[in-house]
Specification:
- This protein is of the alpha+beta class.
- Helices cover 30% and strands 22% of the residues.
- It has 18 helices and 20 strands.
- Helix 1 runs parallel beside helix 9 (259-268), helix 11 packs antiparallel against helix 13 and helix 17 (468-479) packs antiparallel against helix 18.
- The protein is globular, with a radius of gyration of 24 Å.
- The two termini are 38 Å apart.
């Protein structure tokens, strides 16, 4: 079935390419304004961002667009990875940072930054971004905020260019989390104009979030220019950007769900970059002299989530059987041409000292799966597996292959297609397709963000009924400073997590970007599409 689909996609590609090739000879794909000779950039994506609110949208499709609208205080230098695959920290909106005491962390801010609304960036913007009411307090507006910054106790302005973060105890990975998701700095004037005396923070912040969802105000190289649902998001160059004048005068992210249409549009000249290009298209693209293909393994794992509070899946033996029945190498060979890997547990080599090369992780053992199934309460009931078509590369094909693997050990799984993650997590959810991004090379910004005590999986969504010891040990990973102690603790945390089995890993995808050779742009191991001047330029075709 998979083979037939690949041939069908290639056939469509060939036909569309043949029809559209003459367009290339007809001149440039995008008209130029006389007042600005910079090129425009059109990026074909599988799905548009669901929001441009950087604290509300933490999905793969969201962050790749708003990464160029907002900045963080500290950045990861993905273009210069360390030997273990990590990315060193470099200045962003902060010029320097340091722990002045074990519980006080000070950042010095740039003085030459302008917000998209023309206001001057200052310490007050950092205070707005990291206020307890918005991000980390007990009743924070953004529910995911405390999972990132629950260790904070105070954020204060020392002067216009200095901010001090105070933590309950020393936070071993605060610098890393300040470079990642939930740390994108918003401009305070645009947010605080919705503040009203005597009105609860959650009420006025709801007004602010709704108004700015599709009218964001940041400090990045591109500012918001337009949005049409299910069609496009347009950004305009922000020439006052502190990092230099952006290379493109305008960037349009165009929704093109089908892979064949993205590639055909690129060949025709409609697009300059096509995202999410799977391995079965790579060879065909090699035949076009004006195109380049760049691929990168992602710090992201495709996973299957098990609702541990579901009446049927509350049986841990059934969850383990479902995991043991999956032949991950077969999935990698069939879908990814053997070009990727399955992590050996919730860890990556970029974790440095914390990485355990000898760990087995999630293994394939169908005979053990059958034994556990007999010991479980499972009596052949149909189990629902929900997924969103076209959201993840090969998620439909992977589901169909796994469906047969589960059937082989005696588990009856039904695939249910839905339109959004809201539908995915509706009452009655049993299993669903998801991906987990290692947002920083540390468990406090990966495993604990998505599955820890303050995560949505445990709190609001109530998908993971965790062993209490998991949450107790996990908290110490934030504060432990001795490397050997952290490593030993993390090993225990992984042991408990794998035994609880609220999810199982499949593989880390390899993302492919096809582009015009005139476009000089480097993808990262995260889903960020960095369009800053030091990562995007244009040459001759």
């Amino acid at each position: 079935m998979l083979k037939l689909k690949r041939h069908a996609v290639r056939g469509v590609l060939s036909c569309l390419s043949a029809l559209m090739l003459p367009v290339l000879a007809g001149g440039p794909a995008h008209a130029q304004d006389a007042s600005d000779t910079r090129p425009t950039l059109t990026v074909a994506v599988n799905e548009l961002a669901r929001t441009l609110d950087p604290a509300a949208g933490n999905g793969n499709v969201d962050v790749r667009i708003y990464y160029s609208i907002f900045d963080t205080l500290i950045r990861r230098d993905f273009n210069h990875p360390e030997a273990n695959g990590g990315a060193k920290l470099v200045p962003g909106l902060a010029t320097s940072w340091s722990w002045t005491t074990p519980t006080t962390f000070e950042v010095k801010l740039r003085s030459d930054v302008t917000c998209h609304d023309g206001s001057k960036f200052k310490a007050d913007d950092v205070l707005t971004t990291f206020s307890p009411e918005r991000l980390w307090g007990a009743d924070a507006y953004y529910a995911e905020g405390p999972a990132y910054f629950g260790t904070l106790r105070k954020v204060e302005k020392i002067d216009d260019n200095t901010v001090r973060f105070t933590t309950a105890e020393h936070d071993a990975s605060l610098e890393q989390r300040l470079s990642s998701y939930m740390s994108f700095v918003i401009c305070g004037d645009a947010w605080n104009k919705y503040k009203k005396d005597g009105v609860a923070a959650k009420v006025w912040m709801d007004d602010a979030a709704k108004a700015l969802r599709w009218n964001p105000v940041g400090t990045g190289p591109y500012k918001f220019a337009g949005y049409q649902k299910n069609d496009h998001v347009t950004l305009q160059a922000f020439d006052a950007y502190y990092g230099g004048k952006p290379a493109a005068k305008k960037v349009t992210f165009k929704s093109v769900p089908e892979v064949a249409a993205r590639v055909a549009g690129l060949v025709a000249g409609d697009y300059d970059i096509a995202a999410e290009i799977p391995p079965d298209q790579w060879q065909a693209l090699a035949g076009y002299k004006d195109l380049a293909l760049k691929t990168v393994p992602l710090e992201n794992s495709h996973v299957v989530v098990f609702n541990t509070n579901d009446p049927l899946l509350s049986d841990k033996k059934l969850r383990h059987a479902l995991s043991l029945a999956i032949d991950r190498q077969a999935l990698i060979d069939a879908l990814w041409k053997g070009k990727t890997y399955a992590p050996n547990g919730y860890q990556l080599p970029s974790f440095g000292n914390l990485y355990d090369k000898s760990r087995a992780g999630y293994i394939y053992d169908p005979e053990q799966a059958k034994k556990l199934l007999k010991q479980s309460r499972y009596k052949g009931q149909e189990i629902s597996y929900r997924l969103i078509p076209n959201y993840y590369l090969y998620n439909v094909e992977a589901a169909q292959i796994m469906q047969e693997m589960w059937r082989a050990v005696g588990i009856n799984v039904r695939i249910d297609f839905v339109d959004s993650f809201k539908d995915v997590r509706k009452p009655g959810v049993q299993m669903f397709a998801w991906s987990n991004t290692y947002r920083i090379p540390d468990p406090t910004g990966s495993l604990l963000i998505l599955w820890g005590a303050d995560s949505e999986a445990q709190k609001s969504q109530k998908l993971y009924n965790a062993n209490p010891e998991f949450n107790t040990l996990a908290k110490s990973l934030y504060t432990a400073t001795d490397p050997a102690q952290r490593r030993a603790t993390y090993t225990k945390v992984l042991d408990i997590f794998e035994d609880d089995m609220p999810m199982t890993m499949l593989y880390n995808p390899v993302t492919g970007y096809a582009m015009k050779k005139k476009v000089s742009w480097q993808p990262y191991s995260q889903y960020y599409m960095d369009l800053r001047p030091d990562n995007l330029s244009f040459g001759t075709p």
